[in-house]
Amino acid sequence: MMKQLVEKTGRDSAVAQEMLPGDLMTNRQRAQLVLVLGALIAIGPLTIDMYLPALPAITAGLQTTETAVQLTLTGTLVGLALGQLLIGPLSDVVGRRVPLLAGLATHIVASVLCVFAPNIAVLGGLRVLQGLGVAAATVVATAVVRDLFSGASFARIFSRLMLVMGLAPILAPTLGSGLLSWTDWRGVFAALAVLGALLIVVAALRLPETLPVTRRRHGGVRATLRDYRGLVNDRAFVGLVLVAGLAMAALFAYVSGSSFVLQQEYGLDEQQFGIAFGAGAVGLIGATQFNVRLLRRYTPQQILVSALIAGTAAGLLLVMFAATGIGGLGTLLASLWLVLAAAGLALPNAPALAMSRHSEAAGTAAALLGAVQFGIGAVSAPLAGLFGTGSVPMAIVIAGGMAAALIVMLLVVPRASLGSVDPDLAVALH
Questions:
Q1: C-alpha torsion 137→142→147→149, nearest 10
Q2: What gap in Å lies between CA 388 and CA 243, rounded to an integer?
Q3: CA 245, CA 249: separation in Å to the nearest integer?
Q4: Burial of 360 by CB count in 10 Å (0-12 exposed, 13-18 middle, 19+ buried)?
Q5: Which DSSP state fits 410?
Q6: Using an 8 Å Cβ cutoff, are 79 and 135 in contact?
Q7: What is the rounded distance in angstroms from the CA atom of residue 229 to the CA atom of residue 233?
Q8: Of 237, 266, 310, 342, which residue has the fewest beta carbons closer than 10 angstroms?
Q9: Are 415 and 289 a contacting pair, CB within 8 Å?
C-alpha cells in the first residue's frame, strides 16, 4: 500500500505540492514505517556502542595498546562522516533504496570480517567500512521521512525516530555486556552481522522507493559542490555546525574512554559498566526531552548558550574530581552526567538553528552537519588515549570540547544573524 501511495503522489506534481504520501497513510501504516526506520536508525548507535564493554578484552586479545583500540572507534566515526557526505547527495540523485541496500550489505560483510580480524590494523579498517554502511541507513532513514511527510507530521514522526536513536546507545553497551557473558568480543561483531542481515531483508520487503524520478535532483557533482560552497560561505551556519561538532567531541571522548576508566581504574565489571553507561545515556535523553518544554519559554539560542556554559562548568568540575579523587567514583559519575545532560540540551538546538538557515538545501546541510559532528568526534575519540587511558585525560578532552563549543558560539556565531526557528523543525530535532 505504501508503494502505491508514493507512486500516486509522485505522478501528480500538483497533488504532491499539496499533499505528501505520508498524509494518506493510516495509523497502522505509519506505525509500521516508524518501526522499519527506527530499526535502520538504531543500527548506527548499536554498531558504535555495542562493543564498548569489550575494548579492554580486545586490547588483550589482539595484544595491542588502548590507544590503538580506541582508534577502531575513530574508524567507525570516520566512515559515518564520509558516508553521510557521499550518500546524502547520491540518494537525492538515484533514489533511496539502492544506497540503503548497498550500505547494509557493506555493513554485513564488514561485520563478518571483523569476527575473523587477525590484528588491530585490520579491525580498524573494517570498522571504517562498518561506518560507511550504517551511514547509508542513517541518511536514507532521515531522507525517507522528508520524502513522505512535512510540517507537524514530519515533526511527530522524526521525534519518535530521535527517541529510538537516543535509546539505542543506552541499550547497546548492556546488550554487549550480555553477549560477553557467554561469548568473546568476536561474538559481538557476529551479532551485528546478524542484525544487518535482518535489516536488509526488512528493508527490501517493507520499504519501497520514496523518491519518485520526477523529484530527483539533477546537475551531478557540480550542483552538489555548489550547494556545499553556499553552506561553508555562511559564517553563522559554519559556527553552529562547529558548536554541534565540538559538543559531540565531548560526548565521544566519554564514549571512547569510559570503558577503560570505569573498568580498569575504578574496577567495574562489564555488566556494571553497561549499567553506568546506560544511566548516563538516560540523563542525555532526559535532557533532550526536557528541551521541548524549555522551547515553550526560551529561544533555541538562549538554551544553547546556557547549556554550553553549564557544560563547561561541569567539565571543569569533572577535571577537578578526576585529578584529586575527591568523592571517588560517585563525584566522577555525577559530574560526567551533568556534562551529558548539558550536551543533551546543546546538541538538538545547534542543528535546529543551523538547519533553519538553509531549507532550500536541507539534505546537503544535514549531510554536512552529520559529517562534521562525526568527523570531530573521530578526532576526539583517540585524543585522550594519546595521554593515557585514565580519568584525567578523558576529563580534559571532555571539558575542552564543551569550552571550545562555548567560545565558538560566543565569538564566531553572530547573534544578529540568528533568525527564528520553524517550530516544527525545532520539535523534530529534539
A1: 140
A2: 26
A3: 6
A4: exposed
A5: H
A6: yes
A7: 6
A8: 266
A9: no
Angle (CA) 267-270-274 rounded to 5° is 110
Pick the closest to residue 300 from 237, 333, 348, 233 (CA basis).
348
**Joined grid coordinates for residue 277:** 553507561
H-only helix segments in 356-390? 362-383
What's the rounded Cα separation, in Å, for the pair 264 and 174? 18
Contacts of 64 (CB under 8 A, 6+ apart): 58, 119, 120
* DSSP assignments along 175-194, one per residue: HHHHHHTTS-HHHHHHHHHH
DSSP state of 26: -
Please tell me the pTM assigned to this model.
0.73
How far apart CA 377 and CA 389 sit, in angstroms, is: 17
Nearest to 72 by CA among 385, 284, 369, 370: 385
Write out the DSSP string of 333-360.
HHHHHHHHHHHHHHHHHHHHHHHTT-GG
Q: At residue 3, what is the residue type? A: K
Cβ atoms of 322 and 284 closer than 8 Å: no
Per-residue tens of pLDDT for the chain, all 430 residues: 555 555 554 454 444 445 677 777 888 888 888 899 989 988 998 998 899 889 999 999 999 988 899 889 889 989 988 998 888 888 888 888 999 999 999 999 999 999 999 999 999 999 999 999 999 998 888 788 878 876 656 656 766 776 676 677 667 887 888 898 889 999 999 999 999 999 999 999 999 998 888 877 776 667 777 878 888 888 888 999 999 899 988 988 888 888 889 998 899 988 888 888 888 888 888 887 788 788 888 888 899 999 999 999 999 999 999 999 999 999 999 999 999 999 988 888 888 788 777 655 666 777 788 788 878 877 887 776 677 778 999 999 999 999 999 999 999 887 655 655 554 555 555 5
- List b or e across 320-331, with b for residues whose CB sees 16 or more CB atoms inside 10 angstroms: ebbeeeeeebeb
Cα separation of 397 and 403, whole Å? 10
DSSP 109: H
Instruction: Report the C-alpha gap between 343 and 364 in whole angstroms.
Output: 24
Residues 6 or more apart whose CB falls under 8 angstroms from that of 63 comprise: none
